[in-house]
Amino acid sequence: MRAPKLRELKEAIRSLFSRPVTVRFPAGAYEAPAGYRGTPRYDEATCIGCGACAQVCPAKAIEMIDDLAQSPPVRRFTIHYDVCIFCGHCELNCTTTTGIHNTTEYDMTTFDRASLVSSVEKELVLCEGCGAVIAPREHILWSAEKLGAKQFANPTLALSSAGALGLVEPASASVHPGLRPDSVRVLCARCRRTTVVGELWG
Ligand code: SF4
Ligand code: SF4
User: How far is the CA of 80 from the centre of ligand 2 (A)?
Assistant: First the structure.
């Protein structure tokens, strides 16, 4: 019984002259260590707008909306931090691996839950035939680059790459896919099928 009492006394005296182990939050902010899973944030430069993060989010904290009323049309991602559970699945499954990352920020104290959001927008490419959404432009260009020379098997990819280099002008009018010249157009999967099948079998 005696030894523990002496040990506790020694500990108490030492604590009197050493710094407290607790932090003075919120007067002094605690710095989270590297690897801490705090608020996720998009990296506008490397996010291609593919939507994989929104699909894997277990809490459905990432809202993905295709805004066709805006000119040019955009795909908008909004992270709702009041729903996010900071699991890190969005970062883990990001197609480009760096489009979103969990920061070390953790203090989101507020009286206004609506302010707990972060957004990114990506320009959409629409089908020149029916106007359906194909994909964000950056996603198409990223896919074309990954495919290299194989992209030329798909006119949508090849035309988008050439357009980004300023080698072709965007189509000025929509088409009604079905004829051979229509195959060299930026088309959705349905219009591409209509054109190819129509050309082969009439
Ligand atoms: S950290 Fe988890 S819950 Fe939060 S946005 Fe990413 S996937 Fe969703
Ligand atoms: S590139 Fe990454 S962060 Fe951007 S939409 Fe795709 S999965 Fe999400």
Answer: 16
Residue 95: which CATH number?
3.30.70.3270
Is any ligand 2 atom within 6 A of the Cβ of residue 46? no
CA distance 178 to 125: 20
Ligand nearest to the CA of 42: 2
- Domain range for 136 is 128-202
- Residue pair 195/178 in contact (Cβ under 8 Å)? The answer is yes
The pTM of this model reads 0.83
Mean pLDDT for the chain? Answer: 89
Residue 153 lies in a domain: yes
142 CA distance to ligand 1 middle (Å)? 24
Contacts of 135 (CB under 8 A, 6+ apart): 49, 50, 124, 125
The residue from 59, 92, 126 where one domain ends is: 126
- Measured distance CA(56)–CA(59) in Å, rounded: 9
Specify the number of domains making up the chain. Answer: 2
Chosen domain end from 97, 126, 155: 126
- Residues 1-44: pLDDT tens digits? 556 688 899 989 998 899 888 888 878 888 899 889 999 999 99
Do 23 and 30 touch, CB atoms closer than 8 A?
A: yes
Kindly give the interhelix angle for 137-147 and 155-164, rounded to the nearest 10 degrees.
110
154 and 101, same domain (yes or no)? no
Answer yes or no: are the C-beta atoms of 157 and 144 closer than 8 Å: yes
